[in-house]
Design brief:
The complex is a heterodimer of chains A (421) and B (458). With 421 residues, chain A is mostly helical. Chain A has helices at residues 6-50, 67-70, 78-82, 86-97, 104-111, 118-128, 145-151, 158-161, 164-172, 183-186, 199-230, 236-248, 253-267, 275-300, 303-311, 316-344, 348-352, 373-382, 386-417; strands spanning 55-64, 136-142, 176-180. Chain A is 67% helix and 5% strand. A 3-stranded antiparallel sheet of chain A has the order 2-1-3. Chain A is extended. Chain A starts with 5 loop residues before the first helix and ends with a helix. Chain B is flat. Chains A and B meet through helix 1, helix 11, helix 12, helix 13 and helix 14 of A and helix 2, helix 6, helix 8, helix 9 and helix 10 of B.
């Protein structure tokens, strides 16, 4: 056989070509693996940062509920009990614990061990049970953020380093304990990390997203039904609507925020920072997606359902409302829930309409100033304090859990009600 | 009466009207339902629609306009010298009035106090009027409809026509939204271009919108050249695409052509999780994990990497876009007809050769369209860059440097209370216009490319 025969060349090249195939396959596999590894890194780093925030350090102090301090003039009515100087009770207890600390600056450092919310805690205790006055109680008070960070072994807590001898002393006496951080789930925002919670943001999100779903689902379904079932074909306006819906689905969310700012806040003068305006903006934003998914589920209803209904004498509206819509509704609801789950994580447009204000109170309605969970995460992540960063990560975990729940509900609905024809 | 109570009452009245209409139709037919044009329930719906719809429409209109009108009225009652203030100062006065309204402790200024009182009084009157008029509209509508009920009234046709109009109106909301977006950014942009010439905005190389407090300060007028922002935006997007395009495309090829079905069944939902993670979470990751890591890595390698580098923000944005690119590419690859692959195999091609020399070229227009959509996403992405990119505009193409983007500037210009007439605020809308036009253009091109490609195999 002569050299350079075609078959020989092909045989010789097979190994090379096979190797190239293996290389492409591995490159593709690596791409998927790298992406999934990054997902793991993303979630892992957030869990690693955030799980600590579910715990909070508490200090045990022997507080003497001094009648001289609480009720110097002997009045024990609620008003004067509320206004008493509980701060000094905490300070007194700290001084008794560390009698060797002298000098104003040193003492002021000492007071920083306990959170400024400790006094509130005592006030609640006394108001709940005034018989405590005049007794000495061992009370667990939330530690300040510095101590908390130090106890959790965070490196960035240099400020707490000067507190270390005292913390060691407390540890030796068993006066430091890490407990489940109930405050995180029951409080609104605060200037102090150890007193800050997500309840305010969570209820803001609840009102905003609830109204969004309430508005966007019926509107989206109505629009989809019109476009699929009633709209005349080859009509300028209908074409315009279709083009608009497709384009709106790809408009950056921040532009919807500008729309909300210019139209709802400035033209209509609706109140700033409220779930109402947030929901209106998010509704306009999610509508295109909901319309598109709703149309897909309408298209999935087989044409013979329609023909059968029309055949027995139903009007077009009856055919749609009595037969097509009930069959398509589960799919539409699934799409709407997934759409609103996305809206739940949306931040940028809400920044535009002023939902970034620092709000301590927990919103109780659609017209109360509120913030939402993603915005709260943004605000905390931006803060310099380690304690807030930790809480931002924890809030992300809560947000992800809620989004996961909504998506699970959507998948459940789809599995449970989906019909294949 | 609060709005929500009013809505509940209107709903209740409508149900009552349904019942009345139904009763009336049955009474008129004299027990012979077949004499009626439509089924009796349609007469009920007819009455209910007449009861509820006009009242509801009125309610919505009133609520939207109420605040404006009250402010006008309060403005007219202000003393002469306040009324003649320039509009942004007037806005400040109204802000004081609003604070005086919401907080229990009244303002010291008697003028503000009086205005707040007047505001409160007008609001009370408006509330009462709204309730009275809405309820009257509901009652009258129901009564009128009930009187019109005759056996030959085509109730079903009327009800269906109304419903169809309502359906059409909901779908027309899409046009309204686009018009709203266009008008709101256009109007403010035009006002902005009255203050700052469009050429300076479009071609200026300097962006420092911070207006000086004192007029003699350096850079007192502020500079509004948006080229540095555009370059910054393109730089972060380029970094993002450098990550997302190869990884996304390779994953798509792997999942579509090589992966075992079981691997696919696991990998695809996981990729979708990545697509569902909120952008603020990516921002957190970029700012608190990736950026510090990059800075330390840079120190080890002897590079200075800014803590708010375009690289960090772009990398994370790339991760965010990967699932988007891979799912579009996978769809497109799936859409390539099997006959093309079979032809390649018949000629002796290996799988890799069939993919790289037949499938990918055939799918290329779709893939390019998908990439364009991905770029438009990267340009419009806000939270990652707000949290991880810089604030100061620098004209640079060094990804290790800190840059700022269009979206970042919109957010920083608009967060917090601002007077609505300063060039700073208006500039944000001009940037919004640019962003809208940019992303819209990319989308239109991408959709055109994708559609054109799809047609060629159908």
């Amino acid at each position: 056989m002569s050299k350079g025969h075609t078959v020989d060349r092909i045989v010789a090249s097979i190994a090379r070509r096979r190797a190239r195939e293996t290389r492409l396959k591995w490159a593709g596999f690596m791409a998927v693996a790298v992406t999934l590894a990054l997902l793991a890194l993303l979630l892992g780093s957030i869990v690693a940062l955030g799980w600590r925030a579910f715990q909070q350090t508490y200090l045990a102090l022997d507080v003497y509920f001094d009648p001289q301090v609480i009720a110097p003039d002997g009045r024990l009515d609620e008003e004067s009990l509320r206004q008493a100087d509980y701060e000094s009770l905490v300070r007194q207890a700290l001084r008794e614990l560390f009698p060797q600390v002298e000098g104003r600056t040193q003492q002021r450092m000492l007071y920083r061990l306990v959170s400024s919310g400790g006094a509130d805690y005592l006030s609640h205790m006394v108001l709940a049970d005034p018989r405590l006055i005049g007794t000495r109680q061992r009370v667990w008070l939330p530690a300040s953020s510095d101590v908390d960070m130090f106890a959790k072994g965070q490196t960035g807590a240099q400020r707490a380093a000067s507190l270390q001898p005292w913390i060691d002393h407390l540890l030796a006496q068993g006066r430091i304990e890490k407990r489940f951080n109930k405050t995180f789930f029951t409080a609104g925002d605060s200037r102090e990390p150890e007193l800050a919670g997500i309840l305010g943001a969570l209820s803001g999100s609840f009102y905003t997203i609830g109204l969004t779903l309430l508005l966007s689902f019926p509107l989206g379904v109505a629009a989809a039904v019109y476009l699929e079932e009633f709209a005349p074909k080859k009509n300028f306006w209908v074409d315009l609507i279709e083009v608009n819906i497709n384009n709106l689905a790809a408009v950056p969310s921040i532009v919807f925020g500008l729309l909300g700012l210019a139209v709802f806040l400035n033209a209509f003068a609706l109140p700033r920072s409220t779930p109402l305006v947030g929901a209106l903006v998010l509704t306009l934003m999610t509508l295109p997606t909901i319309i598109i998914t709703s149309r897909v589920s309408l298209q999935a209803v087989p044409p013979w359902i329609r023909e059968a209904a029309l055949g027995v004498g139903a009007s077009k509206m009856q055919m749609v409302l009595h037969h097509v819509l009930p069959l398509a509704l589960p799919g539409m609801l699934t799409g709407a829930i997934i759409g609103t789950a996305r809206a739940l994580g949306e931040t940028a447009p809400l920044l535009m309409i002023g939902m970034v204000a620092f709000i301590v109170d927990i919103p109780r309605g659609l017209l109360d100033p509120a913030t939402v969970l993603p915005v709260q995460i943004y605000l905390w992540a931006d803060s310099a304090e380690r304690g807030f960063v930790e809480r931002a990560a924890a809030a992300i975990l809560v947000l992800l859990v809620f989004m996961l729940l909504m998506n699970a509900l959507a998948i459940f609905l789809r599995r449970h009600f989906e019909r294949r024809w | 009466m609060s709005i929500s109570t009013l809505i509940w009452i209107l709903l209740g009245l409508s149900s009552l009207a349904y019942y009345l209409g139904l009763k009336r139709a049955l009474a008129i037919s004299g027990g012979q339902v077949r004499h009626l044009h439509s089924l009796p329930s349609y007469y009920g719906y007819y009455t209910a629609l007449w009861c509820g719809l006009p009242a509801l429409a009125f309610l919505i209109l009133w609520t939207l306009l109420e605040e404006r009108i009250i402010i006008l009225a309060v403005g007219a009652s202000l003393p002469e010298e306040l009324q003649n203030l320039p509009s942004e100062r007037l806005e400040l006065v109204f802000n004081q009035v609003r604070t005086a309204l919401s907080s229990a402790n009244a303002s010291e200024d008697p003028v503000i106090c009086a205005a707040a009182d007047r505001y409160r009084a007008l609001q009370a009157i408006s509330n009462r009027c709204l309730a009275v008029v809405a309820l009257m509209a509901a009652g009258l509508g129901a009564m009128w409809a009930r009187r019109r009920i005759r056996p030959d009234l085509p109730a079903r046709n009327l009800v269906e026509k109304t419903l169809e109009t309502l359906l059409a109106a909901s779908s027309a909301l899409a046009i309204l939204t686009t018009v709203g977006i266009l008008l709101s950014v256009l109007f403010e942009s035009i006002r902005f271009f009255e203050l700052v010439p469009a050429t300076e905005f479009l071609f200026g190389l300097n962006w420092s919108p911070q207006l000086a407090i004192r007029p003699d300060q350096v850079g007192a007028s502020g500079a509004f050249g948006f080229i540095p922002l555009l370059v910054g935006t393109l730089l972060t997007s380029a970094v993002a695409m450098a990550v997302a395009a190869p990884i996304g495309l390779l994953s798509a090829i792997y999942l579509a052509e090589f992966a075992h079905p079981q691997v696919r069944a696991v990998a695809k939902p996981l990729l979708e999780i990545l697509a569902g993670v909120p952008t603020v979470v990516y921002g957190f990751f970029a700012a608190l994990v990736v950026a510090p890591f990059l800075r330390q890595a840079g120190e080890v390698l002897g590079l200075t990497i800014a803590s708010e580098s375009a690289l960090g923000a772009g990398l994370v944005m790339g991760i965010m876009i990967v699932p988007f690119v891979s799912s579009i590419s996978e769809d497109v690859i799936h859409a390539v007809p099997q006959s093309l692959r079979d032809g390649a195999y018949a000629l002796g091609a290996t799988r890799a050769e069939a993919i790289t020399q037949v499938v990918i070229p055939a799918a290329l227009p779709g893939i390019v369209g998908g990439m364009l959509l991905a770029i438009s996403r990267a340009i419009g992405e806000t939270m990652i860059v707000v949290m991880a990119a810089g604030l100061t505009a620098k004209l640079t193409i060094n990804p290790l440097d800190s840059v700022t983007t269009i979206t970042v500037q919109i957010v920083t210009l608009l967060i917090g209370d601002q007077e609505f007439d300063s060039p700073k605020t208006l500039a944000a809308f001009a940037l919004g216009l640019v962003l809208f036009v940019l992303t819209l253009g990319l989308n239109v091109i991408a959709l055109y490319v994708v559609r054109k490609y799809r047609e060629s195999y159908e």
